[in-house]
Design brief:
GO terms for molecular function: (S)-citramalyl-CoA lyase activity; hydrolase activity; malate synthase activity; metal ion binding. This protein is an alpha/beta fold. Helices cover 46% and strands 15% of the residues. The strands form two sheets. The chain has an eight-stranded parallel barrel, surrounded by four helices.
Length: 327
């Protein structure tokens, strides 16, 4: 992506910037875990799961849901239960996606994942349509882990229907305001099920999804959550993937769902600041701090007057650069 040594020199040039980068906030969201690439691996396919240990995906999502046939659900649970704690996924976050709460399969999925030798980092819950779904999940996790002293699980929920989008404010507020056995970390936009929900037809430019995509970002950022964009289903079209990933990054998404290892590099790069962007941000923050030091109000940077939102944007770039540099 860019030279690590040179980037570190840019970031560490100013000690105050170093302290700034150690801030807990990452582009307006909780935590410092980058989730640029969110790779689904069918939980029943042990060979693919094993291969995922050598991939550079920020998140490896062991799937019990859409990626697994109905007659293979039990096999997926057993495989996931057995490999958690056995395989080393390196710096990748390990997530387990359970089946939807309404499916009747979620309880068994949770038991398999949460009684394994080692807990996953996060649980991904599809089709979360209401606060009642969060309450059900809280009760199940508390019951299964009642004797566990482990750290709280990360929770990532998927927005996949018109009802889910309408109730998203309530779900985010409920999930982030109450003491629960999980940390609400991110929202994922599930475009395929959403299209079915509203009776729309997918097009290449995805204009039919514009409102929903932007609404998910707004809710995520309002509640300090990461926002993970929709899947680009044609994994043999790298140019299309790059265009959509870069669009998602411009919208404010922090990462993207992917379905093939060949999509990792493009997505990671699309959701990472370039060396030029990092240098711009570093220079701007330095200029701002110098103006602050001498007591000047207006900030002139490369011939442009800079306001505080632009300074904050630059700081966000630096935080993201620091977080992704650690991967």
């Amino acid at each position: 992506m860019f030279g690590g040594g040179k980037l570190c020199k840019i970031i560490l040039k100013n000690n105050h910037l170093r302290l700034l980068l150690l801030s807990r906030n990452l582009c307006g969201v909780k935590g410092r875990t980058p989730r640029r690439s969110f790779l689904y691996i069918p939980g029943n396919e042990e060979r693919k799961v094993s291969k995922a240990t050598g991939l550079n995906s920020d998140c490896v999502v062991l799937d019990c849901e859409d990626g697994v046939a109905s007659n293979k659900k039990g096999e997926a649970r057993n495989t996931i239960h057995n490999i958690l704690g056995q395989l080393n996924f390196g710096s990748s976050e390990v997530c387990v996606r359970i089946n939807s709460i309404e499916s009747g399969l979620a309880e068994d999925d949770l038991k398999a994942a949460l009684t394994a030798k080692e807990l996953p980092d996060s649980i991904v819950v599809p089709k979360v349509d209401s606060v009642q779904h969060l309450d059900w999940l809280s009760n199940q996790v508390s019951s299964i882990m009642k004797s566990s002293a482990e750290k709280k699980l990360g929770l990532i929920t998927q927005v996949e229907s018109a009802l889910s989008l309408l109730n998203l404010h309530a779900v985010c507020e409920h999930g982030t305001s109450t003491d629960r056995p999980f940390r609400f970390e991110a929202l994922v936009f599930g475009s395929d099920d959403f299209l079915v929900s509203i009776g729309a037809t997918r097009t290449k430019d995805a204009k039919e999804l514009l409102h929903a995509r932007q609404s998910v970002v707004v809710h995520a950022k309002a509640f300090g959550l990461q926002a993970i964009d929709m899947v680009y289903i044609n994994f043999k079209d790298p140019e299309g993937l790059q265009a959509q990933a870069e669009e998602g990054a411009r919208f404010g998404y922090t990462g993207k769902q992917i379905i093939h290892p060949g999509q990792i590099e493009i997505v990671n790069k699309s959701f990472s600041p370039s060396e030029e962007k990092v240098k711009w941000a570093t220079d701007l923050v330095n200029a701002f701090e110098e103006q602050e030091r001498v007591g000047k109000g207006a900030i002139n940077f490369h011939g442009n007057m800079i306001d505080m939102p632009t300074v904050q944007q630059a700081r966000n770039v630096l935080r993201l650069a620091e977080a992704t540099q650690e991967k």
